[in-house]
Amino acid sequence: MVDFLSQYLIIDIFISNIGRLMSGLRFTFTLTIVVMFFGTIFGVLLALGRSFGSKSVAWLCTAYIEIIRGTPMLAQLFILYFALPSYGIRMTAVTVAYLGFTINCAAYQAEYTRGAIESVGTDQFKSAYSLGMGRWQTIFTIVLPQAVRWAIPAWTNEFIYVLKYTSLAYIIGAPDLMTQGKFIASRNYQFFRVYMIAAIIYLIIVWISTWIIDRVEEKLKIPGFG
Amino acid sequence: MLRRTFVVMLALALLVVFSGVTVMAETYLVGTSAGFPPFEYIEDGEVVGFDIDLMKAIGESQGFEVEFQDISFDSLIPGLQAGTIDVVAAGMTITEQRAQVVDFTDPYYSANQAVLVREDSGNNVTVLYGDNRLAVQTGTTGDLWVEENLLNTGVLTGNVTNFDTFVLAVQDLINENVEGVVLDTPVAQRYAAGNPVEMVAELITGEEYGLAVASGNTELLEKLNAGLDDVIESGVMDELLEKHF
Fold first, then answer.
1. Which of A93, A183, A189 sits opposite B138 (nearest CB)?
2. Number of independent structural domains in chain B
Protein backbone atom coordinates (compact mmCIF):
# COMPACT_ATOMS: atom_id res chain seq x y z
CA MET A 1 0.00 0.00 0.00
CA VAL A 2 2.82 2.40 0.88
CA ASP A 3 4.74 1.11 -2.10
CA PHE A 4 3.26 3.47 -4.68
CA LEU A 5 3.63 6.47 -2.38
CA SER A 6 7.22 5.82 -1.42
CA GLN A 7 8.22 5.69 -5.07
CA TYR A 8 6.59 9.08 -5.70
CA LEU A 9 5.32 7.57 -8.92
CA ILE A 10 1.74 8.52 -8.33
CA ILE A 11 2.84 12.11 -7.75
CA ASP A 12 5.09 12.04 -10.82
CA ILE A 13 2.20 10.83 -12.95
CA PHE A 14 -0.08 13.47 -11.48
CA ILE A 15 2.36 16.30 -12.13
CA SER A 16 3.29 15.26 -15.65
CA ASN A 17 -0.37 14.97 -16.64
CA ILE A 18 -1.80 17.80 -14.60
CA GLY A 19 -3.04 19.76 -17.63
CA ARG A 20 -5.07 16.87 -18.98
CA LEU A 21 -6.38 15.85 -15.56
CA MET A 22 -7.46 19.39 -14.72
CA SER A 23 -9.20 19.86 -18.06
CA GLY A 24 -11.05 16.60 -17.39
CA LEU A 25 -11.95 17.76 -13.89
CA ARG A 26 -13.16 21.11 -15.23
CA PHE A 27 -15.43 19.35 -17.71
CA THR A 28 -16.77 16.91 -15.12
CA PHE A 29 -17.40 19.64 -12.55
CA THR A 30 -19.04 22.11 -14.95
CA LEU A 31 -21.19 19.30 -16.34
CA THR A 32 -22.29 18.33 -12.82
CA ILE A 33 -23.14 21.91 -11.79
CA VAL A 34 -25.14 22.65 -14.95
CA VAL A 35 -26.89 19.26 -14.85
CA MET A 36 -27.83 19.70 -11.18
CA PHE A 37 -29.09 23.27 -11.78
CA PHE A 38 -31.41 22.44 -14.67
CA GLY A 39 -32.16 18.96 -13.31
CA THR A 40 -33.43 20.50 -10.07
CA ILE A 41 -35.62 23.06 -11.85
CA PHE A 42 -37.17 20.47 -14.18
CA GLY A 43 -37.34 17.96 -11.34
CA VAL A 44 -39.35 20.32 -9.12
CA LEU A 45 -41.66 21.16 -12.02
CA LEU A 46 -42.17 17.45 -12.73
CA ALA A 47 -42.87 16.76 -9.06
CA LEU A 48 -45.42 19.61 -8.90
CA GLY A 49 -47.02 18.35 -12.10
CA ARG A 50 -47.25 14.83 -10.76
CA SER A 51 -48.53 15.81 -7.32
CA PHE A 52 -50.81 18.75 -8.07
CA GLY A 53 -51.30 18.91 -11.84
CA SER A 54 -54.45 17.97 -13.72
CA LYS A 55 -54.96 14.32 -14.53
CA SER A 56 -53.33 14.50 -17.96
CA VAL A 57 -50.39 16.59 -16.71
CA ALA A 58 -49.82 14.18 -13.82
CA TRP A 59 -49.97 11.26 -16.23
CA LEU A 60 -47.44 12.87 -18.58
CA CYS A 61 -45.03 13.66 -15.74
CA THR A 62 -45.34 10.12 -14.38
CA ALA A 63 -44.74 8.64 -17.84
CA TYR A 64 -41.61 10.76 -18.30
CA ILE A 65 -40.22 9.83 -14.88
CA GLU A 66 -40.91 6.13 -15.29
CA ILE A 67 -39.48 5.91 -18.81
CA ILE A 68 -36.28 7.77 -17.93
CA ARG A 69 -35.78 5.96 -14.62
CA GLY A 70 -36.60 2.63 -16.18
CA THR A 71 -34.04 2.71 -18.99
CA PRO A 72 -30.25 2.51 -18.61
CA MET A 73 -28.39 5.81 -18.83
CA LEU A 74 -25.93 4.15 -21.19
CA ALA A 75 -28.74 3.32 -23.62
CA GLN A 76 -30.05 6.89 -23.43
CA LEU A 77 -26.61 8.32 -24.26
CA PHE A 78 -26.23 5.85 -27.12
CA ILE A 79 -29.60 6.78 -28.61
CA LEU A 80 -28.93 10.52 -28.30
CA TYR A 81 -25.45 10.35 -29.78
CA PHE A 82 -25.33 7.40 -32.18
CA ALA A 83 -28.94 6.79 -33.23
CA LEU A 84 -30.47 10.27 -33.59
CA PRO A 85 -28.07 11.39 -36.38
CA SER A 86 -29.76 8.94 -38.76
CA TYR A 87 -32.98 10.94 -38.16
CA GLY A 88 -31.17 14.17 -38.95
CA ILE A 89 -30.66 15.28 -35.34
CA ARG A 90 -26.95 15.83 -34.83
CA MET A 91 -25.41 16.99 -31.57
CA THR A 92 -21.81 17.09 -30.37
CA ALA A 93 -20.71 14.66 -27.68
CA VAL A 94 -20.53 17.54 -25.19
CA THR A 95 -24.11 18.66 -25.95
CA VAL A 96 -25.33 15.08 -25.63
CA ALA A 97 -23.59 14.77 -22.27
CA TYR A 98 -25.28 17.94 -20.95
CA LEU A 99 -28.68 17.00 -22.38
CA GLY A 100 -28.59 13.31 -21.46
CA PHE A 101 -27.55 13.80 -17.85
CA THR A 102 -30.05 16.65 -17.33
CA ILE A 103 -32.92 14.54 -18.70
CA ASN A 104 -31.90 11.76 -16.33
CA CYS A 105 -31.22 13.92 -13.30
CA ALA A 106 -34.63 15.64 -13.63
CA ALA A 107 -36.45 12.32 -13.38
CA TYR A 108 -34.65 11.35 -10.16
CA GLN A 109 -34.93 14.83 -8.67
CA ALA A 110 -38.67 14.76 -9.39
CA GLU A 111 -39.10 11.71 -7.21
CA TYR A 112 -37.00 13.11 -4.35
CA THR A 113 -39.03 16.33 -4.44
CA ARG A 114 -42.33 14.48 -4.65
CA GLY A 115 -41.39 12.47 -1.58
CA ALA A 116 -40.56 15.69 0.23
CA ILE A 117 -43.80 17.37 -0.89
CA GLU A 118 -45.84 14.45 0.36
CA SER A 119 -44.11 14.51 3.73
CA VAL A 120 -45.56 17.99 4.27
CA GLY A 121 -48.91 17.25 5.92
CA THR A 122 -52.14 17.85 4.00
CA ASP A 123 -53.60 19.58 7.05
CA GLN A 124 -51.38 22.53 6.15
CA PHE A 125 -53.45 22.93 2.98
CA LYS A 126 -56.60 23.13 5.07
CA SER A 127 -55.01 25.67 7.39
CA ALA A 128 -53.85 27.79 4.47
CA TYR A 129 -57.27 27.60 2.77
CA SER A 130 -58.93 28.70 6.02
CA LEU A 131 -56.68 31.77 5.91
CA GLY A 132 -58.03 32.49 2.45
CA MET A 133 -55.00 31.36 0.47
CA GLY A 134 -55.38 29.84 -2.98
CA ARG A 135 -54.18 26.37 -4.04
CA TRP A 136 -51.04 27.38 -5.95
CA GLN A 137 -50.29 30.16 -3.46
CA THR A 138 -50.28 27.51 -0.73
CA ILE A 139 -48.07 25.23 -2.79
CA PHE A 140 -45.48 27.90 -3.55
CA THR A 141 -45.42 29.77 -0.22
CA ILE A 142 -46.19 26.99 2.30
CA VAL A 143 -45.51 23.53 0.91
CA LEU A 144 -42.54 24.02 -1.43
CA PRO A 145 -40.32 25.99 1.02
CA GLN A 146 -40.65 23.13 3.50
CA ALA A 147 -40.32 20.41 0.88
CA VAL A 148 -37.11 21.92 -0.51
CA ARG A 149 -35.53 21.69 2.93
CA TRP A 150 -36.65 18.09 3.34
CA ALA A 151 -35.15 17.29 -0.04
CA ILE A 152 -31.65 18.65 0.65
CA PRO A 153 -30.07 15.38 1.90
CA ALA A 154 -31.43 13.51 -1.12
CA TRP A 155 -30.27 16.38 -3.31
CA THR A 156 -26.74 16.10 -1.91
CA ASN A 157 -26.84 12.41 -2.63
CA GLU A 158 -27.89 13.10 -6.22
CA PHE A 159 -25.11 15.67 -6.59
CA ILE A 160 -22.45 13.13 -5.60
CA TYR A 161 -24.10 10.51 -7.76
CA VAL A 162 -24.16 12.78 -10.83
CA LEU A 163 -20.55 13.86 -10.26
CA LYS A 164 -19.39 10.27 -10.47
CA TYR A 165 -21.99 9.04 -12.95
CA THR A 166 -20.81 11.60 -15.53
CA SER A 167 -17.89 9.24 -16.09
CA LEU A 168 -20.30 7.34 -18.36
CA ALA A 169 -19.69 10.17 -20.84
CA TYR A 170 -16.54 8.33 -21.90
CA ILE A 171 -18.71 6.06 -24.05
CA ILE A 172 -19.51 8.94 -26.42
CA GLY A 173 -15.98 10.35 -26.25
CA ALA A 174 -16.78 13.40 -24.11
CA PRO A 175 -13.61 14.65 -22.37
CA ASP A 176 -14.52 14.02 -18.71
CA LEU A 177 -12.10 13.11 -15.93
CA MET A 178 -12.35 9.34 -16.47
CA THR A 179 -11.90 9.69 -20.24
CA GLN A 180 -8.73 11.69 -19.61
CA GLY A 181 -7.58 9.12 -17.07
CA LYS A 182 -8.09 6.34 -19.59
CA PHE A 183 -6.19 8.39 -22.17
CA ILE A 184 -3.21 8.89 -19.85
CA ALA A 185 -3.20 5.23 -18.81
CA SER A 186 -3.34 4.09 -22.43
CA ARG A 187 -0.03 5.95 -22.88
CA ASN A 188 1.93 5.04 -19.77
CA TYR A 189 0.23 1.69 -18.92
CA GLN A 190 0.18 2.70 -15.26
CA PHE A 191 -3.53 1.90 -14.99
CA PHE A 192 -3.59 1.32 -11.27
CA ARG A 193 -1.84 4.57 -10.44
CA VAL A 194 -3.77 6.70 -12.92
CA TYR A 195 -7.15 5.41 -11.73
CA MET A 196 -5.96 5.90 -8.16
CA ILE A 197 -5.28 9.56 -8.98
CA ALA A 198 -8.72 9.92 -10.58
CA ALA A 199 -10.35 8.31 -7.54
CA ILE A 200 -8.55 10.68 -5.16
CA ILE A 201 -9.62 13.70 -7.23
CA TYR A 202 -13.27 12.55 -7.18
CA LEU A 203 -13.04 11.97 -3.44
CA ILE A 204 -11.62 15.44 -2.73
CA ILE A 205 -14.27 17.13 -4.89
CA VAL A 206 -17.05 15.17 -3.17
CA TRP A 207 -15.68 16.11 0.27
CA ILE A 208 -15.48 19.80 -0.56
CA SER A 209 -18.91 19.82 -2.19
CA THR A 210 -20.69 18.05 0.68
CA TRP A 211 -19.00 20.39 3.17
CA ILE A 212 -20.36 23.41 1.27
CA ILE A 213 -23.84 21.91 0.93
CA ASP A 214 -23.90 21.09 4.66
CA ARG A 215 -23.19 24.76 5.42
CA VAL A 216 -26.00 25.80 3.07
CA GLU A 217 -28.34 23.35 4.77
CA GLU A 218 -27.50 24.89 8.17
CA LYS A 219 -28.12 28.39 6.86
CA LEU A 220 -31.51 27.39 5.47
CA LYS A 221 -32.56 25.70 8.69
CA ILE A 222 -35.65 27.15 10.38
CA PRO A 223 -35.27 27.13 14.17
CA GLY A 224 -37.56 24.60 15.77
CA PHE A 225 -38.34 22.95 12.45
CA GLY A 226 -37.27 19.55 11.17
CA MET B 1 -13.64 -62.30 -0.36
CA LEU B 2 -15.62 -59.26 0.46
CA ARG B 3 -12.45 -57.54 1.50
CA ARG B 4 -10.74 -58.33 -1.77
CA THR B 5 -13.64 -56.96 -3.75
CA PHE B 6 -13.44 -53.81 -1.70
CA VAL B 7 -9.72 -53.40 -2.39
CA VAL B 8 -10.22 -53.93 -6.10
CA MET B 9 -13.05 -51.44 -6.15
CA LEU B 10 -10.98 -48.89 -4.24
CA ALA B 11 -8.11 -49.35 -6.67
CA LEU B 12 -10.46 -48.88 -9.61
CA ALA B 13 -11.96 -45.79 -8.03
CA LEU B 14 -8.51 -44.28 -7.43
CA LEU B 15 -7.53 -45.09 -10.99
CA VAL B 16 -10.58 -43.25 -12.30
CA VAL B 17 -9.93 -40.26 -10.05
CA PHE B 18 -6.27 -39.96 -10.97
CA SER B 19 -6.71 -40.57 -14.67
CA GLY B 20 -9.40 -37.91 -14.54
CA VAL B 21 -6.93 -35.47 -13.10
CA THR B 22 -4.22 -36.20 -15.61
CA VAL B 23 -6.58 -36.07 -18.59
CA MET B 24 -8.18 -32.81 -17.47
CA ALA B 25 -6.25 -30.11 -19.33
CA GLU B 26 -5.41 -26.73 -17.97
CA THR B 27 -7.73 -23.90 -19.01
CA TYR B 28 -6.38 -20.47 -19.85
CA LEU B 29 -8.55 -17.40 -19.83
CA VAL B 30 -7.95 -15.42 -23.03
CA GLY B 31 -8.85 -11.74 -23.07
CA THR B 32 -9.94 -10.16 -26.31
CA SER B 33 -11.83 -7.10 -27.48
CA ALA B 34 -14.46 -8.13 -29.98
CA GLY B 35 -14.73 -4.99 -32.08
CA PHE B 36 -11.89 -5.80 -34.42
CA PRO B 37 -13.13 -7.85 -37.37
CA PRO B 38 -11.93 -10.15 -38.80
CA PHE B 39 -9.59 -10.78 -35.85
CA GLU B 40 -12.32 -10.84 -33.22
CA TYR B 41 -15.96 -9.86 -33.47
CA ILE B 42 -19.37 -10.91 -32.31
CA GLU B 43 -21.42 -13.18 -34.55
CA ASP B 44 -24.73 -14.58 -33.32
CA GLY B 45 -23.79 -13.62 -29.77
CA GLU B 46 -20.47 -15.46 -29.87
CA VAL B 47 -16.96 -14.10 -30.03
CA VAL B 48 -15.43 -15.40 -33.27
CA GLY B 49 -12.54 -14.49 -35.58
CA PHE B 50 -8.99 -15.20 -36.61
CA ASP B 51 -7.45 -14.69 -33.15
CA ILE B 52 -10.09 -16.93 -31.57
CA ASP B 53 -9.43 -19.79 -34.00
CA LEU B 54 -5.68 -19.25 -33.65
CA MET B 55 -5.84 -19.53 -29.84
CA LYS B 56 -7.95 -22.69 -30.12
CA ALA B 57 -5.44 -24.20 -32.56
CA ILE B 58 -2.52 -23.33 -30.25
CA GLY B 59 -4.41 -24.84 -27.33
CA GLU B 60 -5.00 -28.02 -29.30
CA SER B 61 -1.33 -28.24 -30.22
CA GLN B 62 -0.09 -27.62 -26.66
CA GLY B 63 -2.83 -29.50 -24.84
CA PHE B 64 -4.67 -26.76 -22.99
CA GLU B 65 -8.19 -25.45 -23.09
CA VAL B 66 -9.05 -21.84 -23.82
CA GLU B 67 -11.92 -19.73 -22.60
CA PHE B 68 -12.55 -16.26 -23.96
CA GLN B 69 -13.44 -13.08 -22.21
CA ASP B 70 -14.57 -10.03 -24.17
CA ILE B 71 -13.45 -6.79 -22.50
CA SER B 72 -12.50 -3.32 -23.69
CA PHE B 73 -9.15 -3.08 -25.45
CA ASP B 74 -7.50 -0.77 -22.95
CA SER B 75 -8.49 -3.07 -20.07
CA LEU B 76 -6.56 -6.01 -21.55
CA ILE B 77 -3.09 -5.10 -20.27
CA PRO B 78 -4.38 -4.20 -16.78
CA GLY B 79 -6.20 -7.56 -16.88
CA LEU B 80 -2.92 -9.40 -17.51
CA GLN B 81 -1.20 -7.42 -14.77
CA ALA B 82 -3.97 -8.15 -12.30
CA GLY B 83 -4.10 -11.82 -13.29
CA THR B 84 -7.78 -11.80 -14.26
CA ILE B 85 -6.81 -13.08 -17.71
CA ASP B 86 -3.86 -15.26 -18.77
CA VAL B 87 -3.40 -14.36 -22.44
CA VAL B 88 -4.29 -11.42 -24.66
CA ALA B 89 -5.27 -12.35 -28.21
CA ALA B 90 -6.64 -9.11 -29.60
CA GLY B 91 -4.67 -8.13 -32.69
CA MET B 92 -2.34 -6.32 -30.33
CA THR B 93 0.64 -4.60 -31.94
CA ILE B 94 3.99 -5.38 -30.37
CA THR B 95 5.41 -2.04 -29.21
CA GLU B 96 8.40 -1.20 -27.08
CA GLN B 97 6.19 0.51 -24.51
CA ARG B 98 3.78 -2.39 -24.17
CA ALA B 99 6.69 -4.85 -24.06
CA GLN B 100 7.87 -3.11 -20.90
CA VAL B 101 4.75 -4.16 -19.02
CA VAL B 102 3.78 -7.46 -20.69
CA ASP B 103 5.61 -10.24 -22.56
CA PHE B 104 4.85 -10.81 -26.25
CA THR B 105 5.07 -14.00 -28.29
CA ASP B 106 6.66 -14.07 -31.72
CA PRO B 107 4.64 -11.97 -34.17
CA TYR B 108 1.86 -13.81 -36.01
CA TYR B 109 0.56 -11.07 -38.32
CA SER B 110 1.81 -7.82 -39.84
CA ALA B 111 -0.41 -4.88 -40.63
CA ASN B 112 -0.37 -1.19 -41.49
CA GLN B 113 -2.68 1.64 -40.54
CA ALA B 114 -5.46 2.78 -42.85
CA VAL B 115 -7.48 5.96 -43.21
CA LEU B 116 -11.26 5.52 -43.47
CA VAL B 117 -13.60 8.24 -44.78
CA ARG B 118 -17.31 8.31 -45.68
CA GLU B 119 -17.97 6.75 -49.06
CA ASP B 120 -19.67 9.73 -50.75
CA SER B 121 -17.71 12.49 -49.02
CA GLY B 122 -15.04 12.90 -51.69
CA ASN B 123 -12.51 13.13 -48.86
CA ASN B 124 -9.07 11.64 -49.23
CA VAL B 125 -5.87 11.36 -47.22
CA THR B 126 -5.98 15.15 -46.63
CA VAL B 127 -8.44 14.53 -43.78
CA LEU B 128 -5.29 13.98 -41.74
CA TYR B 129 -4.34 17.65 -42.16
CA GLY B 130 -5.72 21.00 -41.05
CA ASP B 131 -8.79 21.36 -38.88
CA ASN B 132 -10.43 18.04 -39.79
CA ARG B 133 -11.85 15.92 -37.01
CA LEU B 134 -10.72 12.32 -36.53
CA ALA B 135 -11.86 9.41 -34.39
CA VAL B 136 -9.64 6.66 -32.99
CA GLN B 137 -9.86 3.84 -30.48
CA THR B 138 -8.07 4.73 -27.25
CA GLY B 139 -4.72 3.04 -26.81
CA THR B 140 -4.47 1.58 -30.33
CA THR B 141 -1.58 2.07 -32.74
CA GLY B 142 -3.77 4.45 -34.76
CA ASP B 143 -4.44 6.55 -31.67
CA LEU B 144 -0.74 6.77 -30.78
CA TRP B 145 0.25 7.38 -34.42
CA VAL B 146 -2.20 10.26 -34.77
CA GLU B 147 -0.99 11.84 -31.55
CA GLU B 148 2.68 11.49 -32.38
CA ASN B 149 2.66 12.35 -36.07
CA LEU B 150 -0.30 14.68 -36.49
CA LEU B 151 -1.19 16.39 -33.21
CA ASN B 152 2.28 16.83 -31.73
CA THR B 153 3.66 18.13 -35.02
CA GLY B 154 0.77 20.57 -35.50
CA VAL B 155 -0.18 19.00 -38.84
CA LEU B 156 -3.68 18.38 -37.51
CA THR B 157 -5.41 21.11 -35.53
CA GLY B 158 -8.90 19.55 -35.42
CA ASN B 159 -10.32 17.49 -32.62
CA VAL B 160 -9.50 13.82 -32.14
CA THR B 161 -12.25 11.85 -30.39
CA ASN B 162 -11.25 8.78 -28.40
CA PHE B 163 -13.64 5.84 -28.36
CA ASP B 164 -13.65 2.54 -26.53
CA THR B 165 -14.13 0.43 -29.65
CA PHE B 166 -13.69 0.83 -33.40
CA VAL B 167 -17.39 0.11 -33.89
CA LEU B 168 -18.23 3.41 -32.17
CA ALA B 169 -15.47 5.32 -33.98
CA VAL B 170 -16.76 4.12 -37.38
CA GLN B 171 -20.36 4.91 -36.35
CA ASP B 172 -19.25 8.42 -35.45
CA LEU B 173 -17.72 8.71 -38.94
CA ILE B 174 -20.94 7.53 -40.60
CA ASN B 175 -22.89 10.04 -38.47
CA GLU B 176 -20.68 12.82 -39.90
CA ASN B 177 -19.32 13.84 -36.52
CA VAL B 178 -15.77 13.25 -37.77
CA GLU B 179 -14.16 13.19 -41.20
CA GLY B 180 -11.82 10.24 -40.77
CA VAL B 181 -10.89 7.21 -38.68
CA VAL B 182 -7.37 5.78 -38.42
CA LEU B 183 -7.28 2.04 -37.76
CA ASP B 184 -5.48 -1.18 -38.69
CA THR B 185 -5.72 -2.03 -42.39
CA PRO B 186 -7.31 -5.51 -42.24
CA VAL B 187 -10.01 -4.15 -39.93
CA ALA B 188 -10.53 -1.08 -42.10
CA GLN B 189 -11.07 -3.33 -45.11
CA ARG B 190 -13.63 -5.38 -43.23
CA TYR B 191 -15.54 -2.29 -42.08
CA ALA B 192 -15.42 -0.80 -45.59
CA ALA B 193 -17.06 -3.94 -46.97
CA GLY B 194 -20.10 -3.65 -44.73
CA ASN B 195 -20.52 0.09 -44.11
CA PRO B 196 -20.83 3.28 -46.21
CA VAL B 197 -17.15 4.04 -45.62
CA GLU B 198 -14.05 3.57 -47.76
CA MET B 199 -10.33 3.20 -47.28
CA VAL B 200 -8.46 6.07 -48.95
CA ALA B 201 -4.89 5.60 -47.76
CA GLU B 202 -2.58 3.19 -46.06
CA LEU B 203 0.08 4.41 -43.66
CA ILE B 204 3.05 2.07 -43.78
CA THR B 205 3.74 1.50 -40.11
CA GLY B 206 4.63 -2.19 -40.46
CA GLU B 207 3.43 -3.19 -37.03
CA GLU B 208 3.34 -6.79 -35.95
CA TYR B 209 0.66 -8.44 -33.84
CA GLY B 210 1.61 -10.72 -30.99
CA LEU B 211 -0.10 -12.62 -28.22
CA ALA B 212 0.68 -11.24 -24.77
CA VAL B 213 1.06 -12.78 -21.33
CA ALA B 214 1.84 -11.23 -17.96
CA SER B 215 5.42 -10.07 -17.58
CA GLY B 216 7.58 -12.97 -16.44
CA ASN B 217 5.12 -15.75 -17.27
CA THR B 218 7.75 -17.59 -19.35
CA GLU B 219 6.11 -21.00 -18.97
CA LEU B 220 2.96 -19.90 -20.78
CA LEU B 221 4.94 -17.76 -23.22
CA GLU B 222 6.99 -20.79 -24.28
CA LYS B 223 3.86 -22.86 -24.75
CA LEU B 224 2.32 -20.16 -26.92
CA ASN B 225 5.46 -19.78 -29.03
CA ALA B 226 5.75 -23.54 -29.47
CA GLY B 227 2.07 -23.63 -30.38
CA LEU B 228 2.49 -20.81 -32.91
CA ASP B 229 5.42 -22.63 -34.56
CA ASP B 230 3.41 -25.82 -34.70
CA VAL B 231 0.34 -24.05 -36.14
CA ILE B 232 2.49 -22.39 -38.82
CA GLU B 233 4.42 -25.57 -39.73
CA SER B 234 1.36 -27.81 -39.85
CA GLY B 235 -0.36 -25.50 -42.33
CA VAL B 236 -3.21 -24.66 -39.96
CA MET B 237 -2.13 -21.01 -40.07
CA ASP B 238 -2.63 -20.89 -43.84
CA GLU B 239 -6.08 -22.43 -43.45
CA LEU B 240 -7.02 -19.78 -40.89
CA LEU B 241 -5.70 -16.94 -43.05
CA GLU B 242 -7.63 -18.37 -45.98
CA LYS B 243 -10.79 -18.59 -43.87
CA HIS B 244 -10.71 -15.10 -42.38
CA PHE B 245 -9.08 -12.78 -44.94
1. A183
2. 2
What is the per-residue pLDDT across B100-135, written as a single tens digit (0 to 9) for each? 999 999 999 999 999 999 998 989 999 999 999 999
For B201, the 3-state DSSP assignment is strand
CATH no. for residue B188? 3.40.190.10
Instruction: Give the Cα separation of A22 and A14 in Å (integer).
Output: 10
User: Helices marked H in chain A — which ranges?
Assistant: 3-6, 9-16, 18-52, 55-70, 73-78, 93-119, 123-130, 135-138, 144-165, 177-188, 191-220
Q: Which amino acid is at A70?
A: G
Residues B103 and B116 in one domain: no
**pLDDT tier at A1 (50, 70, 90 boundaries)?**
very low
A92 touches chain B (CB under 8 A): yes
Q: Alpha-carbon torsion A42, A48, A49, A50, what sign? A: positive
Contacts of B101 in chain A (CB under 8 A): 189
Least confident of A25-29, A55-59, A134-138: A134-138
Is residue B186 within 8 angstroms of chain A, CB to CB?
Answer: no
On whether the CB atoms of residues B186 and B110 are closer than 8 A, the answer is no
Q: What is the pLDDT of residues A104-121, one digit of tens each?
A: 999 999 999 999 999 887
Q: 3-class SS at B156?
A: strand
User: Would you say A100 and A77 are in contact if contact means Cβ atoms under 8 Å apart?
Assistant: yes
The sign of the torsion formed by the CA atoms of B9, B11, B17, B19 equals: negative
Note whether B100 contacts A: Cβ–Cβ < 8 A.
yes
Q: Report the CATH number of the A3-220 domain.
A: 1.10.3720.10
Q: What is the ipTM of this complex?
A: 0.78
| pTM of the model as a whole | 0.80
